[in-house]
Amino acid sequence: MEDIKSASNHLVASYIKETPKSLKLIDSYMVYILLTGIIQFVYVTIAGTFPNNAFLAGFISTVASFILAANLRIQTNPKNASQFPTTSPERAFADFLACNVVLHFAVANFLG
Amino acid sequence: MSVETTSTVARVLKPTILILIALVAISSRLFSIIRFESVIHEFDPWFNYRTTQHLVKNGFYDFWNWFDEKSWYPLGRVVGGTVYPGIMVTSAVIHNVLHFFNFPVDIRNVCVFLAPMFSGLTAFSAYLLTKELKDSSAGLLAAAFLGVAPGYISRSVAGSYDNEGIAIFLLVFTFYLWIKAVKTGSAYFGLLTALFYFYMVSAWGGYVFITNLVPLHAFTLLLMGRYSNRLYVSYSTFYAVGTLLSMQIPFVGFQPTRTSEHMAALGVFGLLQLYAFAELVRGHVTPKQFKTLLRAGVSAVAVIAVVGLTLLSFSGVIAPFTGRFYSLYDTGYAKIHIPIIASVSEHQPTAWTSFFFDLQMLIFLFPAGVYLCFKELKDEHVFIILYSVFASYFAGVMVRLMLTLTPVVCVSAAIAYSTLLDTYLEKSDHVLGTNLKPLTATNDSNGDASTDAKPTSNGTKKPHSSGKGNAKEAKATAAKADAVESKAQAKSTAAAKRYPVFNWDSRAMVILQLTWFLFMFAWHCTYVTSGSYSSPSIVLASRQQDGSQMIIDDFREAYYWLRKNTKEDAKVMSWWDYGYQMAGMANVTTLVDNNTWNNTHIATVGKAMATSEEVSYEVLRRHDVDYVLILFGGVIGYSGDDINKFLWMIRIAEGVYPNEVKETNFFTPRGEYKVDQDATPTMKNSLMYKMSYYRFAELYGGNAVDHVRQARMPSEGPKLSVLEEAYTTENWLVRIFKVKDLDVLGRSLFDATDFDKGKIRKTKKF
């Protein structure tokens, strides 16, 4: 238990020190989405899933937004630049926007 | 030629070849139109055609909310919610675009030509897919193979207006996009994969194949220790967006969150998230600390997962596996539990021979191509290996799934074939590696340089020209052979100077043989296409003794009669096979059709056919049936008639009404299924038997022979009391009977019939 504690402390410290600001911004966005998803999930366990399509649209919207933000984070991370030779940060952002447009088009359609 | 000019030539040649391949793919599917006419084929296409007509006529919203009261009488069917609308929407869009530009094309022709058009696109996507795996010359070969492979033609000839017609294109193209996404790690390609996956979901139930194969690929890569951020980006984008999009199709609905077919994808998605998070953490801590954190994380996740799964399965949120799904794993399952699935011929296990029949030489090259994939084993090759393993298995289980196997066979055969050509036609590294050494040892440094320079210029040129040669022959069977052979020989003589081991005669032998195989392949494909896969099956053709062709058009004759001579709301009962055709061509109300969603209703029809007149008359009256339509092939020897299907009707009816219908009663004591005078009393009294052979003996003056079952019929035919013959077509193929109304004098219909025949009614003596 002590090990875990020191390891996580180290993790947090290293994260704060080494992560660029733009990535931290994305991370805060992701944490926000995560919280929204958790709130939705808790609400559903209490109040039930009806109407199912609205719940799914909302919940999948958070999951997918989270994923897309994670994609953006991975692709704009300078550490990963070698893995994405064809993807510049601008291109990554354009992809992010395109995916979000399609995603939320489907979400809006599914909300009913 | 310099490198620049050859690449320019290649740039012109490649599109030309691809267009030619597309043209050949389209034109080899037109046999049925040339022989017969531009007509919709078979059974299911008639439903698709009818719904497309509705869509074009009434618009999309009306189609979406369409309640079809003319099928499944008296239940009806919600069409918009129970179809895969992809194919209808596609043809409606094409139709509307053409009309917008003032091309007055009839919707029927759009439907008839849709599958051939898409086969051209399929060939193109096979090119793209193979290009990602090897190079463009292999891609051209794959395109040519897939363009003409009978395994794919079988479901995409002109007039075969079925979901598979566009679905195979979507399948191959989605796989291409997926491989592209994995390779580049681009969210954009992941999005495109998801969009085409959506199109595929809207078009065919076989989308489940993608839903499972792509996660399986991702999972395998994970197990091989090949996790990369590219995989994360492509898979997550595909799954998150694709799943939501797939739920927009009403027929699919919430299934992706419930049924087990879709759970693998979800599981892999979750796994990738955890893995990615672990990777992120790993970047920030020391290995030892990572180990502790990982251990804690894994145990937490395991506890949550077990608790969650137990809760879900106990509360019944996860739906059980469906029957069709089981029948994929256990071939005997359907036969025992679901006769309605087993009775469909395309759900039968594949016979050995049909693999060769549908794929010819490709089936031999296929394993070689898979082996070559193993040798490369990049991410995309893993995908092809998985695809080939699973598609082979499924093709063995169900004839219909030969379709999903054909693309991968073509792709890997093209890889094998083009590797052979590379090896025997030109410089390739492993040939040079073994043979160059003695050469360079004897040569001076000058000669060495020139041998290095020359082959590269040749090497860039040859794959395209050889690919072109092969692609063309494969389709055209034209006299291109000489050109290719002489080219091959010219090349091999030129090469002989440089590679002493591969002198021209051994090269020519291999190349000539390969070329010969291509010829045989093209010949076989054309033969199979024209002979087996181009029959519309609503119009039959037979050869007469003098060699002239006789067209048997009884189906359309009967349906036309129904359309013109019955009330608008007439209810016609027939076995479910003909439901779609009747609705489409005769515009009558049907009881059951090829959408076999209600087994009980089908069993009721089976019961009406299999029981005696008294029992079935009650069923007929209760369902407001006006006419009964059956197929009878006894006169012209058409073996797919209702008496041959009768056993399935009995089996299905027995499943629901075990007390009233018993299969054993239809077999003679010696276990034979007989229709002549040895037929069992139950058989002779069944409505189907009576309708089929009603007045059959009279046709031959009491000496009737059933040409399908080679049975001599008794001279006295069966009597019908509750039905009367309404119409029998020219070749007796279709017979329509009218259900008699209740007798006006209140007699039983049997007495009334006897009375009409002048028989005296036996009265009880007081």
TrEMBL record, chain A:
Keyword field contains RNA-binding: no
Transmembrane regions: 29-48, 54-72
One GO CC term, this protein: oligosaccharyltransferase complex
Recorded superkingdom: Eukaryota
Cited InterPro entries: DAD/Ost2 (IPR003038)
Subcellular location field: Endoplasmic reticulum membrane
Record's bilayer topology term: Multi-pass membrane protein
Keywords, alphabetical: Endoplasmic reticulum, Membrane, Transmembrane, Transmembrane helix
Pathway: Protein modification; protein glycosylation
GO terms (BP aspect): protein N-linked glycosylation
Record bears the keyword Membrane: yes
Function: Subunit of the oligosaccharyl transferase (OST) complex that catalyzes the initial transfer of a defined glycan (Glc(3)Man(9)GlcNAc(2) in eukaryotes) from the lipid carrier dolichol-pyrophosphate to an asparagine residue within an Asn-X-Ser/Thr consensus motif in nascent polypeptide chains, the first step in protein N-glycosylation. N-glycosylation occurs cotranslationally and the complex associates with the Sec61 complex at the channel-forming translocon complex that mediates protein translocation across the endoplasmic reticulum (ER). All subunits are required for a maximal enzyme activity.
Family designation: Belongs to the DAD/OST2 family.
Subunit structure: Component of the oligosaccharyltransferase (OST) complex.
Record protein name field: Dolichyl-diphosphooligosaccharide--protein glycosyltransferase subunit OST2
Organism the protein comes from: Podila minutissima
Lineage: Eukaryota, Fungi, Fungi incertae sedis, Mucoromycota, Mortierellomycotina
TrEMBL record, chain B:
Membrane protein topology class: Multi-pass membrane protein
Domain STT3/PglB/AglB core, residue spans: 571-627
Biological or metabolic pathway of the protein: Protein modification; protein glycosylation
Keywords: Endoplasmic reticulum, Glycoprotein, Glycosyltransferase, Magnesium, Manganese, Membrane, Metal-binding, Transferase, Transmembrane, Transmembrane helix
Any one of the GO BP annotations: post-translational protein modification
Names of required cofactors: Mg(2+); Mn(2+)
Catalytic activity entry: a di-trans,poly-cis-dolichyl diphosphooligosaccharide + L-asparaginyl-[protein] = N(4)-(oligosaccharide-(1->4)-N-acetyl-beta-D-glucosaminyl-(1->4)-N-acetyl-beta-D-glucosaminyl)-L-asparaginyl-[protein] + a di-trans,poly-cis-dolichyl diphosphate + H(+)
Gene3D superfamilies in the record: 3.40.50.12610
Top-level taxon: Eukaryota
Location within or outside the cell: Endoplasmic reticulum membrane
Pfam family of the protein (one): STT3
EC number: 2.4.99.18
Comp. bias (Polar residues): 443-460
Predominant cellular place of this UniProt entry's protein: endoplasmic reticulum
Residues covered by the Oligosaccharyl transferase STT3 N-terminal domain: 13-413
InterPro entries: Oligo_trans_STT3, STT3-PglB_core, STT3_N
Record region (Disordered): 443-472
Segments passing through the bilayer: 12-34, 78-98, 110-130, 136-153, 165-181, 187-210, 231-251, 263-281, 293-319, 355-374, 381-399
GO CC list: oligosaccharyltransferase complex
GO MF annotations, alphabetized: dolichyl-diphosphooligosaccharide-protein glycotransferase activity; metal ion binding
Its biological purpose: Catalytic subunit of the oligosaccharyl transferase (OST) complex that catalyzes the initial transfer of a defined glycan (Glc(3)Man(9)GlcNAc(2) in eukaryotes) from the lipid carrier dolichol-pyrophosphate to an asparagine residue within an Asn-X-Ser/Thr consensus motif in nascent polypeptide chains, the first step in protein N-glycosylation. N-glycosylation occurs cotranslationally and the complex associates with the Sec61 complex at the channel-forming translocon complex that mediates protein translocation across the endoplasmic reticulum (ER).
Family recorded in the similarity comment: Belongs to the STT3 family.
PANTHER family: DOLICHYL-DIPHOSPHOOLIGOSACCHARIDE--PROTEIN GLYCOSYLTRANSFERASE SUBUNIT (PTHR13872), DOLICHYL-DIPHOSPHOOLIGOSACCHARIDE--PROTEIN GLYCOSYLTRANSFERASE SUBUNIT STT3B (PTHR13872:SF1)
Protein name (database record): Dolichyl-diphosphooligosaccharide--protein glycosyltransferase subunit STT3
Native species: Podila minutissima
Gene for this chain: STT3
